[in-house]
Structure formats: C-alpha cells, structure tokens
C-alpha cells in the first residue's frame, strides 16, 4: 500500500545558525553566551545545532509561552519577532532597550521579561530603563536617584554614563572611572537611576 498524501505537509523549518539567530532576536541576546544564560542551555548545544543544522523545538514553545514571541518567526523566519498581541500575554512586559553612544542614549531594540523577575528585584516596568553595552545589559531603577553605594546611571554636563558611586560625608560623592576615583559634590552630577539588575557577558 502506498502512503497517504499528507493533507498538511511539513514546513521548511529553519535549522542551525538560521534558527539560533532568530532566538537571539526575540530574546534581545547579542551573543550565544547570553543566549546560553537566558535559557540555561550549554553553549555547546548551540554549536551542535549549527553543525548538524538542528532546530530546538522546545525552546520555540518555551519562548512563545513566556513572551508571546511568534512561532512562525522562530520556526520559519516569517513575519515579525513578536506577535501584535504580545502586550496581552499575561505576566510579560516588553521594554525598549538603549545603548550608550558618546554619552547619549540611543534606541536599539526591544526585549521582553516576565514581571515576576522584575518584581524580585524591586523593579516596575514604568520605572525601568534597559541599557546595553559591550559588557552586558543593565536594568535601571529610575526611582532610585539618591545614591548610597552601587552602580548608577549619571549625567555629567549632559553626558550619560554608568559608574560606581559611594556617598561620602559632607554631601560628597566618590565616582569610579575605571581604576581611578574622583570626589565631587552631589550637586555636580545628576543621578538618573540605580543599576538594580544586570546580565554580564563572560
């Protein structure tokens, strides 16, 4: 007997690097190291998929359920990374990402994160700013503008940067610039928020 002709034939699914690049897009991860941390999957798994042109079906389902990312985009490379109804996905928030270029914030892409993770770090979507650079991704609490000690987004003469601040007696602040530290009056700078959560590259 001949085989029945499939009424729904298989699609031309993405595999290998074509597939993992789509995962990087929907998660906002710039490197495979960050993607490995995002999913809790060894980096060697992605290398195996690249070598054998494989597709991580479970990650497609997991990502869609967690963020509302488009299955068609991840599996076939069609359409937009995030379905238009992503804002209706429960417990997930879409946040604009920025990069720091010459002291100014520049919009890059959007990232999604579950509200439970934000809440664990005391973050609220409306007061959270996401900034990325070559070292990682930083989640800024824009409500925390009275520095004590930690990494903060600061404005010095109209130029933005992320630096470590330490409060000193006499309304003074110590600012770390690489291996150097300078002391300034708290009126000399504007604190825009505190780095509350970050994803660092290894």
Structural features, described:
This protein has 202 residues and is an alpha+beta fold. The chain has 2 domains: 16-86, lambda repressor-like DNA-binding domains (434 Repressor (Amino-terminal Domain)); 92-200, Umud Fragment, subunit A (Ribbon). The protein is 26% helix and 36% strand. The chain is built from 6 helices and 9 strands. The protein has a 9-stranded mixed β-sheet with strand order 2-1-3-4-9-5-6-7-8. A hairpin with a 2-residue loop joins strand 7 (172-177) and strand 8 (180-185). The longest helix has 12 residues, at 16-27. The termini are far apart. The model has no long low-confidence stretch (mean pLDDT 87).
CATH superfamily of the largest domain: Umud Fragment, subunit A
- Tell me, briefly, the overall form: elongated
Element pattern in H and E: HHHHHEEHEEEEEEE
Q: Assess the beta-strand content as a share of residues.
A: 35-45%
> In what order do the strands lie side by side in the largest sheet?
2-1-3-4-9-5-6-7-8
Poorly predicted sequence stretches spanning 5 or more consecutive residues: none
Give the helix proportion (percent range): 25-40%
CATH arch. level architecture of the largest domain: Ribbon
């Amino acid at each position: 007997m001949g085989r029945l002709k499939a009424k729904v034939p298989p699609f031309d699914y993405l595999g290998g690097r074509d597939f993992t690049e789509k995962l990087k897009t929907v998660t906002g991860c710039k490197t495979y190291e960050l993607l490995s941390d995002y999913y809790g999957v060894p980096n060697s798994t992605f290398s195996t998929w690249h070598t054998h042109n494989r597709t991580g079906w479970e990650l497609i389902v997991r990502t869609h359920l967690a963020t509302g990312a488009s299955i068609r985009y991840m599996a076939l490379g069609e359409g937009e990374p995030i379905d238009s109804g992503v804002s209706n996905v429960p417990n997930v928030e879409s946040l604009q990402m920025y990069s720091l270029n010459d002291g100014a914030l520049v919009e890059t892409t959007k990232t999604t994160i579950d509200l439970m993770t934000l809440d664990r770090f005391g973050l609220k979507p409306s007061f959270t700013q996401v900034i990325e650079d070559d070292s990682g991704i930083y989640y800024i609490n824009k409500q925390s503008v009275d520095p004590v000690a930690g990494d903060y987004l600061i404005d010095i003469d109209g130029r933005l940067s992320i630096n470590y601040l330490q409060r000193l007696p006499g309304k003074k602040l110590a600012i770390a610039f690489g291996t150097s530290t300078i002391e300034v009056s708290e009126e000399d700078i504007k604190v825009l928020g505190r780095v509350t959560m970050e994803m660092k590259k290894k």
